[in-house]
Specification:
two-stranded antiparallel ribbon, Farnesyl Diphosphate Synthase
């Protein structure tokens, strides 16, 4: 049975976590992004357009949730939550470019290169990326060890063995039939690595060095990262453009391999649910403290946009 978006959000602990996390990260982004009085108003405007135009904010929510599970406070998660959302925003700006997916709509609004121009969008994405690491290096109250740990985690998740590699595999796979194993690897790199990084950075921000918690968060993140992408594939087939806030059917348009295309809709839903249960099991030792993350895993596979 599919649960509605509203009923998922209304579970008390998850509802509070999502609302609080979104409010905090929006405030952080507004204060940390360059203003219209910076060296280039047009660049600053494009960066703000790309980073503050709504969205689910799943990655920042994961930073806050992991920080809390690790014994930290919300204020410790503000800077890393903003940083990881900036990296995500940069990836979307570049993903939408004509040289990549060539999309016209993102979050119900024209994509950055349509609202501005292609060159401005490239520069905005580049600068969102560099700003993320500037924040981790300079902002917030962290030790040098914490800063290095968070920067290294985010670099590894976004780089040549992470998100960028997944994007490259995705582009090379256009018009080709990928194997299921290859598709899972591509989505693990493109989506899963950054989701897992959000959790690990949240733990680091809390000053927690517990290796067992790190292992549990990595298992949880790897599972929901793939589940998130499977649900995206499902929604690309079953939801409309207005519901998604971006063009539906774009995977078919680009000749991409998808989970529904390879194994069918019902098997895809079952695979996503199995991954959700794996994620929940990874946190079973943490009892009620992990309730928000467990409910969030269910939200990932039941969301409707």
């Amino acid at each position: 049975m599919t649960t509605s978006q509203d009923s998922i959000d209304q579970t008390p602990q998850l509802s509070a976590l999502m609302a609080n996390s979104r409010e905090r990260v929006e405030a952080a982004l507004q204060s940390l992004l360059p203003s219209s009085t910076s060296a280039s108003k047009r660049l600053a405007d494009a960066m703000r357009y790309a980073a503050t135009g709504g969205g689910k904010r799943v990655r920042p929510i994961l930073v806050y949730a992991a920080c809390k599970l690790a014994g930290g406070k919300d204020e410790q998660a503000d800077v890393p939550a903003a940083a990881i959302e900036l990296v995500h925003a940069y990836s979307l700006v570049h993903d939408d470019l004509p040289a990549m997916d060539d999309d016209d709509l993102r979050r119900g609004q024209p994509t950055c290169h349509r609202a501005f121009d292609e060159a401005t969008a490239i520069l905005a994405g580049d600068t969102l990326h560099t700003l993320a690491f500037e924040l981790l290096a300079l902002r917030g109250s962290f030790s040098a060890e914490q800063r290095v740990d968070m920067i290294a985690t985010l670099c590894q998740a976004a780089g040549a063995d992470g998100m960028a590699a997944g994007q490259m595999q995705d582009m090379l796979g256009h018009g080709q039939q990928m194997t299921l194993a290859a598709l899972e690897e591509m989505h693990y790199l493109k989506t899963g690595r950054l989701i897992t990084a959000a959790l690990l950075i949240g733990r680091t921000a809390a000053g927690n060095k517990d290796a067992s918690l790190g292992h549990a968060l990595r298992e949880y993140g790897d599972a929901i990262g793939l589940a998130f992408q499977i649900q995206d594939d499902i929604l690309d087939v079953t939801a409309g453009t207005e519901q998604l806030g971006k063009p539906s059917g774009s995977d078919e348009k680009h000749g991409k391999s998808t989970f529904p295309g390879l194994i069918g809709l019902e098997a895809s839903r079952q695979r996503a649910n199995d991954l959700c249960e794996r994620a929940c099991a990874a946190l079973s030792d943490y009892g009620p403290a992990a309730e928000a993350l467990i409910t969030l895993a269910r939200y990932v596979v039941q969301r409707q946009h």
